[in-house]
What we know:
Low-confidence stretches: none
Number of helices: 3
Structural class: mainly alpha
Order of helices and strands: HHHEE
Strand order of the largest sheet: 1-2
Distance between the termini: 32 Å
Strand content: under 5%
CATH class of the domain at 1-40: Mainly Alpha
CATH architecture of the domain at 1-40: Orthogonal Bundle
Radius of gyration: 24 Å
Amino acid sequence: MKIDVGYVAELARLELTEDEKALFQRQLDGIVGYVEKISEVNVDGVEPMMHGRESSNALREDDVRPSLPVEVALSNAPKRVGEEFLLPKIVEKTES
């Protein structure tokens, strides 16, 4: 599989020099090569697992507890509207 670094950079809105593109292309080709090599390993009879060894659920019970008062939670907010954080708009609607 070949991944085009220039195309990916364009999608990510990154400006790369030709030298950077060449460097990243070599590095990415190496990574993809290692992943393809892993696919050559015979895993017949190997059970799928999430971890290399057994683990147990270490989560606590979901108990209702008192939380921070609104004023304390918002005390370091740079901007707020009433009892909510005010965040900058990060997505703009574009004409299509």
